[in-house]
Design a protein that fits this description.
Elements (H helix, E strand, L loop, with lengths): L34 E2 L17 E2 L10 H22 L12 H5 L9 H5 L42 H11 L8 E10 L2 E5 L6 E4 L11 H4 L5 E8 L8 E3 H19 L3 E8 L3 E6 L2 E6 L16 E10 L4 E5 H11 L6 E10 L2 E6 L2 E6 L20 E10 L4 E5 L9 H4 L1 H6 L1 H18 L1
Antiparallel strand pairs: 1-2, 3-4, 3-6, 4-5, 6-7, 8-9, 8-11, 9-10, 11-12, 13-14, 13-16, 14-15, 16-17
Length: 449
């Protein structure tokens, strides 16, 4: 009140309740730093961002008290850390992503296999037992982990033995190397022919394997639908296709045919196709044969034989080494053998005298009159009966065309034993009549044997 002499308290001062802490004195005034306000991080629940969160880069008041400088440094460090965390965010900060385990709920999938994820094969699904699987479309409870299926045993798989064996037969290769198979022509190409031989893929026959010699028109030689036999020369490849050949089959058949002819010592006709220093070449059953000069009747002039046809027989037939050696001389002998038979009376000339008998030329072939077959009498010297150059008549008792051997006999023409030693001329003159009687004796001997 007026007149008391006491000054009134200022209206700005507030009364302080007893026991309350006294406020700290405000720091001295300084120039505030330039700051840029940013939005508050949504992750911070409540509260306000401290003033001056990010320093824009203005200079701080140069002169500050040491305590104020330390406080200012701590404040700037806190602001710098917050600025670094927020500099990469140009838009409002998104919520932090959860880890993979939380995002994909991997804990609930523990123990589940890939088969469980894919589910059972619809083609092999079996009907569920009564009260078993849940009806289709019924959803599993929310948050429940997928139920693990029980492991399947071998007995639960379908197994059809007949279907299994049929599958094996279907995948079996048709034809092995060297096998002869039958097929039908189903297609033609410029380089070969396709033949259905019953496999999962057709057999292919290259053009050069389509036959012996040169084939100019495949379409005419192998029309579609033609049935033929082929030889498998190469087994199936990755596509199941095999390589086949008509030519190889024809060559195999030719070798087999020639081997049979060799055993029978047959004489065949061949056409001379060429010559060289050692002899001439020819074609026989699609094979290339060779005739040495020593086996030609006219070996001194073998070049002139090209284009001519000769009668030959076999010296060597070897399919493994592909050697076919022929002989004209042997064929000439074989041709003469064809006109001879056991029991026949022949006439010839003694060309050679050996310790064991006489070699007799019979119209171009040589026969042996062995000493045991000359006479039934006692023979001291071969020359007592015949000498080289003598003509004689004898019976054929054995023929071997393959070895070129002819066995002769004069003892069968005798009446009494040793007659040939005494009356050789008489025996030779009556040889025809005596030969008829001797043949009957030979037949009796054959029947006895």
């Amino acid at each position: 009140m007026a007149g008391t002499g006491n000054s009134q308290p200022s209206s700005s001062a507030r009364p302080v309740s007893p026991g309350a802490p006294r406020p700290k004195p405000a720091p001295p005034l300084r120039k505030p730093p330039q700051v840029m306000m940013i939005k508050k991080d949504e992750s911070d629940a409540g509260g306000s961002a401290p003033p001056g969160s990010v320093i824009a880069g203005s200079a701080v008041a140069p002169a500050v008290a040491p305590a104020a400088a330390a406080q200012q440094a701590a404040f700037q460090q806190a602001v710098s850390k917050q600025a670094v965390a927020q500099q990469a965010v140009a838009a409002p900060v998104r919520p932090a992503a959860r880890n993979d385990a939380e995002l994909f709920e991997l804990e609930s999938m523990e123990g589940i296999t890939m088969a469980d994820l894919l589910g059972p094969d619809a083609s092999r699904r079996r009907p569920a037992a009564a009260g078993g699987a849940k009806p289709a479309g019924q959803a599993a409870p929310a948050g429940a982990a997928p139920a693990r299926s029980a492991p399947r045993t071998v007995d639960e798989f379908d197994f059809d033995e007949e279907a299994f064996l049929a599958a094996l037969d279907e995948n079996d290769g048709v034809g092995t190397t060297g096998e002869v198979v039958k097929g039908v022509v189903i297609g033609l190409e410029s380089d070969g022919v396709y033949v259905d031989i019953g496999g999962k893929a057709p057999g292919f026959m290259p053009k050069k394997e389509c036959g012996l010699g040169v084939i100019t028109n495949l379409k005419e030689r192998f029309p579609k639908g033609l049935e033929l036999e082929v030889l498998v020369t190469r087994e199936q490849n990755a596509d199941g296709m095999v390589t086949i050949s008509v030519r190889a089959l024809a060559l195999r058949q030719s070798w087999e045919k020639l081997k049979a002819m060799e055993k029978e010592a047959k004489v065949v006709q061949v056409k001379v196709t060429g010559f060289n220093r050692g002899g001439i070449t020819c074609d026989l059953e699609g094979l290339r044969g060779f005739i040495p000069r020593s086996q030609l009747l006219d070996g001194e002039n073998h070049e002139a034989l090209v284009g001519k046809t000769l009668g030959v027989t076999f010296l060597e037939v070897n399919s493994e080494t592909r050697k076919l050696v022929l002989s004209e001389k042997k064929a000439s002998t074989a041709a003469k053998f064809a006109n001879l038979e056991v029991g026949q009376l022949v006439e010839g000339v003694v060309v050679s005298v050996k310790p064991y008998g006489f070699f007799v030329d019979i119209g171009g072939v040589s026969g042996l009159l062995h000493q045991s077959s000359i006479t039934a009498g006692q023979l001291r010297d071969l020359r007592e009966v015949f000498n080289q150059g003598d003509r004689l008549k004898a019976l054929i008792t054995e023929l071997d065309p393959g070895r070129g051997r002819i066995a002769l006999n004069t003892a069968l023409l005798e009446g009494p034993p040793g007659e040939l030693l005494i009356e050789k001329e008489k025996v030779m003159a009556e040889a025809v009549d005596r030969a008829n009687r001797a043949r009957s004796v030979l037949r009796q001997q054959e029947q006895t044997l």
